[in-house]
Amino acid sequence: MCGIVGYIGKEEASEVLLDGLRRLEYRGYDSAGMVVLNGNTLEIRRSVGKLANLEAHLKKHPLTGHAGVGHTRWATHGRPSEENAHPHRDATGRVVVVHNGIIENYMALKAGLQARGVKFESQTDTEVVAHLVGEAIARRRQAPVPLSPPLFVEAVREALSEIKGTYALGIVSADCPEVVIGARRECPLLVGVGENEFFLASDAPAILSRTRNAIFLQDGDLAVLSREKVLLFSIETGQPIERKTTYLPWDALQAEKAGYRHFMLKEIFEQPRSLEDTLRGRLDINELKVHLDTLKLSEEQIKKFRKMTIVACGTSYHAGLMARYLFESWVQAPCDVEIASEFRYRNPLIGPEDLLVAISQSGETADTIAAVRHAKGKGATTLAICNSVGSTLYRECHGKILTHCGPEIGVASTKAFTAQLAVLYVLALYGALLRGTLPRPDVENIMRNLLHLSRWVGEALKTDAGVAALAKKYFHSRNFLFLGRNLNYPIALEGALKLKEISYIHAEGYPSGELKHGPIALIDEDMPVIAIATQGRVYDKVMTNLEEVSARGGRVIALATVGDTRITALTSGHRLDAGHPRIHGPRGQCGAAPTVGLPHRRPPRL
Ligand code: F6R
To answer: Of 12, 126, 331, 478, which is the most exposed, with the fewest CB atoms less than 10 Å away?
Structure first.
């Protein structure tokens, strides 16, 4: 959750860095800081809490200079405090580092440094990096010779060779003020390319207001930014490397809140547009064809795959779970879905006959990337479904399909999830058409429903006032149960994840058929049950499960298909939100527009 911004150019660095850090605030942080170089001196400012504190500190004690690095920290090693806030410096105070990631062997490195007399100022893992670079510089530099950029680079490489773990680093030295160094291993870092100015950023929104041209660093890359150019080297070999500059299709405006109270709300309301953008040009209902130009896998390849394995984390994993129902049912192809962090540490049976699909909004999730590399190592073909052009997954997978959501800044995934589902629906249709496993009327029906999807989601979003009323009524509850069956089971898991993550309320997602195998014991009026009970093949079964809940005195909040009177009858039937036609039900039953999962007129064959 930390953020890095770096700058070298003609502007006042402190202003550029503060602006960039502000644009990364959405990632969450508990302290912030920056270092600015001014000739052969450097100065650091750090503050605990909001960026406004750092800003106030900078007003009192301004920094002047045209190069530097800044950081927002989310405490991992050591509590949130000024001494643990980044940047960190070496023993001479002339080498300064900001860092995202985790130095896994920092305890051993710290012990070694302390044995050599180094005193530590913080409890962080990052500080070891500053000291190691400082030591490497001292070993290489015959005082009082100035530190040349190549010597600085060599010292950084030497220090990094001792480090195990993950990092995105920004490093400066007061003895080499003409450069800012960035280095990456398993944590995102990009270089923004301007005119006679260059930027470092852990995430694109930090630089979008200044440039749309970026070089995405890859694992093992080291970047040397000066006012005139950026040079890239391999950390391992020191050899120069080339990376192409990518034009970022998002504008700075897309990364603003646009009048919403927070990014997550804005992104929830962006879903109709994001679904429309994601589906645009991909479905041809007249010819009954699906266009997936960036798939880069031949029809022959697709037909021959023995098995498909989906890997992802968190919300993206839930999208994968949902897709399994589609692939098995429509494409009639075996499909495994795995949590990426488990997949990478097993010995999964995957080989050249298999397709691995990696789903990720960011395209930078370390476990998902590791799973892809593992599968590639075993000869499997890989396909990325992601939202970030130029991200690691996008670059490394054989085929790719983009979700066109624009930047997802709210840390909890919302519009990316529904766009992932839309892409997975399209992919399943594509597979079904190739294999001839779905009758043409079904294909047409599903396509028509997908083309209506954006409008329906817009309709469902009109329930917001009623949903807010439900939230007000229930937010004191400490536990929630989310139930769903079939396609709606992954949706129940996702609902529970969102509630936990955003409200800090404990919630569990369950397949409703499992209720009677244990969790029913927990049902009482203090444990609201949110049921996703849209009409479809398993509707009657879900109703039976909800009757069980009701019999135990449980309070049901149902997400149901518009016009469903049976579900309203399940309890006594008073309206929760008289002002809104779609919210009704005694103890919080909520009717919504048809969901993504269920085509409107004819249920899919699931
Ligand atoms: C939850 C959430 C996370 C992400 C997960 C994977 O709201 O956002 O669970 O889904 O960290 O991230 P990506 O999709 O970027 O690989």
So the answer is: 478
CATH classification of the domain holding 68: 3.60.20.10
What are the φ/ψ torsions at residue 51 (nearest 5 degrees)? -60, -30
| 203-244 per-position pLDDT tens digit | 898 999 999 999 999 999 999 999 999 999 999 999 999 999
CATH number at residue 329: 3.40.50.10490
Buried b (16+ CB within 10 A) or exposed e, 211-233: bbebbbbbbbbbbbbbeeebebb
Q: Is 362 in the pocket of ligand 1 (CB under 6 A)?
A: yes
The pLDDT confidence band at residue 564, using thresholds 50, 70 and 90, is confident
Ramachandran region, residue 398 (left: φ > 0; alpha: ψ -120 to 50; beta: rest): alpha
Confidence of residue 575 (pLDDT cuts 50, 70, 90): very low
| Mean pLDDT within 26-43 | 91
Give the pLDDT band of residue 1 (cuts 50, 70, 90): low
Mean pLDDT of 466-492: 93
**365 closest CA partner among 186, 165, 183, 99:** 186
Nearest alpha-carbon partner for 96 in 117, 61, 121, 64: 121
Give the residue carrying structure tokens 């795995």: 338
| The overall pTM is greater than 0.70 | yes
Gap between the terminal Cα atoms of the chain = 39
Same domain, 329 and 389: yes
User: CB–CB of 20/201 below 8 Å?
Assistant: yes
Residue 579 pLDDT exceeds 70? no
Domain residue limits at 511: 461-588
CA of 314 to the centre of ligand 1 (A): 5
CA distance 372 to 268: 29
Residue 597 lies in a domain: no
Which residue blocks in 116-148 are alpha helix, DSSP H?
127-140
Residue 392 Cβ < 6 Å to ligand 1: no
Residue among 365, 409, 423, 499 whose CB has most ligand 1 atoms within 8 A, to mutate: 365
250 and 271 co-located in one domain: no
Looking only at the bridges linking them, the beta strands covering 167-173 and 190-193 are unpaired
135-187: pLDDT as tens digits:
999 998 876 678 999 999 999 999 999 999 989 999 999 999 999 999 999 88
Residue 255: pLDDT above 80?
no
Nearest by Cα to 147 from 164, 172, 111, 126: 172
Residue 418's closest CA among 279, 536, 525, 571? 279
Mutate to test the pocket of ligand 1, among 315, 344, 503 (most ligand atoms within 8 A of CB): 315
Residue 446: predicted pLDDT: 95
606: exposed, middle or buried (Cβ count in 10 Å: 0-12, 13-18, 19+): middle
